[in-house]
Each structure stands twice: as C-alpha cells, then as structure tokens.
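TL;DR need structure tokens for one chain.
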Amino acid sequence: MLAVALPEIRSEFDVGHAAIGWLISSYLIVMAVAQPLGGRLGDQSGRALVLRISLVAFLGCSIAAIFAPTFAFLAVMRTGQAMAGAALIPTGMAMLRSSVPIHELGQINGLHGAAMGISAASGPILGSLLLTIGSWQLLFVLNIPLALLALLMVLRLRYEQSTTERAPVDVVGALLFAALLAAITAVLNGGREGLTETRGVIAVAATIAIATVFVVAQSRTAVTAVAWSLLRVRTFAAASMQVLLMNLVMYTTLLSMPFFIKEVQGAGSGRTGMLLGTMFVLMAVMAPISGRLADVYGRRLPVLVGTAAAVVGAAILLATLAEDAPPALMAGSLALIGFGTGTSFGSASIIVWPPAITPPASATFSPPPRRISATTSLSISAGKPAMLSAIVTSPPIA
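>> reply
TL;DR here they are.
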C-alpha cells in the first residue's frame, strides 16, 4: 500500500529517488536478516507471546510514523515495523504449518496466498483512495485498527509452549548479511550517477570486502545465519531460484510503477491503484485455485505455468512501457504477472520447504531468496534499469 504514496512522500520531504528507495529497502533488509532470529525467538519463547509483543511493537511504530517530522525518522519507524514483522511472519507461518495435515498444505498455502493477494490487491486501491481524500499519513493510520483487531484475536490464542532447545544464534553472520544487502543496495542506487565516481568505486570496493568477510565467516562457523547447506538439495535450490525470480519481477513492478505513472505519464494515484490492483486481484484469485490443483495433480506444473506467465507479462510490460502507453495494455501485462505469481506461489512455497527437509524452527519459513530478490528489486527500481530510464532521466511532470 505504501508504494502508491512514495511519490508524495518524496515530494513532501524533498528527497531523491535513491533516498526514497531506502524507505523500502531498509524494511526489506531488516526482514531478510531478522526473520530467522524472530522465528527462533518464537520457537524458544512461545509463539503466541511473540505474536502479541510483535503486534504491539508494530502498532507503536505505525503511530509514531504518522507524526514523523523528518524523512530519517520515518525510515527508522519503518525499520521498527520490519523488526516486528520479522517475528510475526515466520512465527505465524510456523503455527499455520504445524496445525495443517501434509496432504492439505497445497490448499492451505493457496488460501494463505489468496489472503495475501486480497490484502495486496486492496492495498493500492485503498492507498490511492486515502491519498485522494488526505495525505500519506492516512496509510499509517489504517494500520491502527487492523493491528488492534489482530491483537484482540491473538490475545484469545492459546498455543502450547515450544519445547525447542535454545540454540546459538549467528549474530555476527546476521549483521554481516545485513551489511552486504545494504552495500549491494547502495551500489545499485549509485548506478543513477555512474559508478565511475569516487563514491561509486568506494561502494563497490566495500561491497566486495563485506562479501569476502561474510563468505569466510560463514565457512568457519558451525551455526550460520542462513542454512546454505540446503542449496545442495536440487529441488530446494531450483525452487529457491524460482522464488527469487518471481519476487524480482513482482517487487520491481510494484515499486517502479507508481513513479512511472505519476512522474512520466503525469497521471494520479487513482490510476496507480487501479493498475496495481489488477495485478494483485489476479494473484488473489489464482492462489487458492492453484493450491487445490497442486494437491491433486502435483506442484511442478503450476510452478512452470505460473513462472512462464509472469515472465511473459513482464517482458510485454517492459517492451511497451512508454509515456503514451495505453492503460489497458499496461493492465493486461500486470494481470498476466499477477496470474503467474498467484499460480506458482503456493506450490513453490511447498517445494522450497518440503516436509522431508523442513526443520522445526519457524525461522525457516521465509526463504532468503524472497527477501534478497525483494531488496534487489528495490535497488534496481531506484537505479537506472531500462524499465525506469525515463523516470531517472526525465524531469518530473508538474
């Protein structure tokens, strides 16, 4: 939902495209790094308790963001939301999966994907509506009743305490992982001004140095920040790459289209909401259907069909994106992306974490490729890819 408001936030705080990108990338980086820690905290301290505390923290950060006096303060509150979400998501997913029979996982994942799709589909539409009647602060106001409702439901929850033994946490590895993602983001953001400049060269050198230290550190520790050994499982590796590709397509589209529509085409937030809503509506419709079909006919076919559809949709969008691009053509391309993402979501999630290799810790329920691709997508959107070259090189339309 916040994506449709990025141009307005950028204008109010008078920051550039690269700077506004950090409002999203900081959220994604924290989510990528902190989810394993948040999931483990839920396993060891009790999932219901962690859900309650996380919801209160998310609520507090949302209220504070409404009154943000500076862009830096707003970014910090978004980071706080991410820290709360990093505990909410894997803990909730762990509770869901542990309470569902294996033979129904496809259907349940499809319903979960549909719920995510519905919320995502309504987000751009609600966001554009709120921007029409008020300011971007209303998007954070909307979080308050939703968080309170979720908190009331969780307070009624009685979930058994986990007996998971306390295990060491690779804090150093997690911090290095965060630094590496931040450095990659900075390098890609620097592409707007050219990496031949001094700052760009320093950013590249720092990224290489951090990556080297991270790889060496991970090879010498028994407990790593990410379970890299799972990549040796061919099915897991292939499904993880599919997750990375799909999220790269989805997040690049989600984060770049609001700027393109407003600053290149000169249209309002209403068109942004309707176009992005088209993509997410198809996601919501196809997710449960795909999950049920996957339980009956297998999970590979939905993944292959969905991936192909999303890639074709993205290719059409990229090839036809121009200042005078017809909204109907853009909507069709976005619908194809939504169809493909929704079709493959549930099946790919199960392939990534099949019961045979899924450890009990809820920290494993959000594959790193998903967050890595999301962070990279944000960086690309703030940089200078072909899809956004018009935004970066053209002055804003009054």
